[in-house]
């Protein structure tokens, strides 16, 4: 029997080869794709997220773990689709207009994928119109926005207004170094996260 604890451990260690081989073995043995996802990949990323919150691991370790999870997900995804497994939520994410920083945003996107969300990453320098268009066309439940510069933070408020005017019902979560809970509340965002691991908790609570 393929060992899902070994799969979780491979994700934690960032061991891509083992993560892929255990995923393939589990599928060939007829294990349910959802069990492989929940008890293997997500379980591993949960441990990493928890350690990241406690400052026991840092961004490089998280990125390495997320990469291992991503390579295993490439094997698993077609089987999840065939089995009709739905993501726990759908999120459109991007760095706001005028801002080209993406490390934090990429980390949040990876952690959310690792938690079972479908993530549509729009990249950097994303206009309010683009956020609206993608949130509408993808029927997203959440819109995530990141800013690293104080000068680009107003782009978040503009985007929220554009989403409201377009009648988009998605809930908005914001983050980035200069962003605070107070700022999030002031501009009408429903969620704020100080780091990538907390972003997963925020996203889960917003779609619950």
Overall description:
- The chain has 208 residues and is an alpha/beta fold.
- The protein folds into two domains: 4-82, Methionine synthase domain (Methyltransferase, Methionine Synthase (B12-binding Domains), Chain A, domain 1); 90-207, Rossmann fold (3-Layer(aba) Sandwich).
- Helix content is 58%, strand content 11%.
- It is built from nine helices and five strands.
- It has helices at residues 4-13, 16-28, 33-53, 59-82, 103-114, 128-137, 154-165, 181-187, 196-207, and strands at residues 90-95, 118-121, 142-146, 171-175, 191-192.
- The chain has a five-stranded parallel sheet, with helices on both faces.
- Helix 1 (4-13) runs antiparallel to helix 4 (59-82), helix 2 (16-28) runs antiparallel to helix 3 (33-53) and helix 3 (33-53) packs antiparallel against helix 4 (59-82).
- It is globular, with a radius of gyration of 17 Å.
- The mean pLDDT is 95.
- Pfam families: B12-binding (PF02310), B12-binding_2 (PF02607).
- Residues 1-88 form the B12-binding N-terminal domain.
- One of its GO terms (cellular component) is cytosol.
- One of its GO terms (biological process) is tetrahydrofolate metabolic process.
- Belongs to the methylamine corrinoid protein family.
